[in-house]
Structure prediction request, 511 residues.
Amino acid sequence: MRPCLLALLCCGLCGYGQEQPRGGLVKLNVVALDSRGDPVGDLSEDDLQLRDQNKPYKIAFFHKNDATARIAAPEKLGPHEFSNRAAAAPPTVTLVLLDLVNLTMNQQGYARTQLANVLQKLESTDYVYLYLLTVRGPLAIRPLPEGPVEGAPGGWAKDVARMLDDAFGRVYRMSPDMYAEDRVKLTYMSLESVASRLAAFPGRKSIVWISRGVPIAIGPRNSTSGGIVDFEPLLRDFSATVDSATISIYPVGDLSAQSSREPQDLGAFDAPDEAPVGRGTGPRPQPQVQVTGGAVDTLSEMARMTGGRVHLNNDIGAAIRQAFQDAKLNYTIGYYPEEWDNKFHKIRLNCSRRGVKLLVKDGYYAYAGTTAEQEKAAIEEATWSPLDAGEIGVRVAVSPSRKMAQAVHLEIKIDANDIRMTRTDQDYSGQVSITYVAYDAEGRASVAPAAEFPFHMSSEQRNGALKGGMSLSQDRSAADTAQRIRLIVFDRAASTIGSVTIPLSPEDRSH
Prediction:
């Protein structure tokens, strides 16, 4: 008999603020390599020692992520049944972003040729997606799917050279004229945009960013405001975005032209005689923009703060292959810091095994928000995301309610393997919340308050839940104006999220 989540709930709903520390859980994605650079796949939490601001902390959450293991085929869905795991989880998801906003014309041509050669020679590009960063934002060459990630049988990259040629033809008719300050802001907006799309997919994801980078700050002579413009807040916010989504950045740049701390030319292009067709009539590019923080520094910081690796040698192939390898076998660990002081916290993670090298971000910004605030932000993002979140597997069958008029009956199954459970002497406990969002024909959303479901399980119940899922039955009102609903599950112990969208037809509702 399937264990029912309602039957596992503790007698009274415990207070959320009393259960979780202020600030919540800090999660780290860790890649472990041996002396030959090969992945290490048999670590345990006892092998790791963690320090935050030089203070030791106990690891509260440890999970091995092995994309090389055989992935079970998803269960077949029945009529009026929906899941965010309708397709098998991809082994890795890599997004390659070729930056036409911050590369010179010559650098664009070199990167375009090398990228085509690299992608054509890769053993598999089924889960590789390609975008250009343009003055109008990200332009998809091979876009991320609108639904569950699926491979492309036959290899789309065989035709990538022509695809790039076609895209470059369109891009060159866009005006590149832009002030340095606007250029940096556009770059971060575009990076945030592709990161938000990637966040919907489970596991570790990678962005291979081919770029000269952007400055950390610009001086008063070159800013539109006439003062120093510090872009570190943009870098910090972007790092927090990709960190929460388990995205690592693998920048590819060139250090040969100038050192990381020399002033850099942030003009639109270095070769005016190679200007693109159809230049606009807007403000002219700023020549020789002197920056107070090197753009290469930004590339290195992004890799360091997200657990990726920077390649300052223009080797696009090495960056893509490294991203593949790091995503296939890694670990997720978590801990609860005591201080949330809105400052940057330095992390040091060591392995007691000799010869093991750990790749992990070296710090985070300890924003002093409560875990409840983090949950609210995660649910808001899941509400407006074009894709369902996939960290937690959710499956829902919908039928007319027998108890309520203008309502639907939902049979919900949550993948217990994705829920963090704390073990005590007698049982296993955890806490999830479920939020319902109804959308009308215009896309307007009506969000119901999150319902709290703390639970306690015996060992036997937990084993049953791991095999058959955690089940919950609910009846929800559904007005005729509701075209679809989205069910959002949030694990309050692990700060992970899963959602599934359910289209509604008249026969799904009771009358």
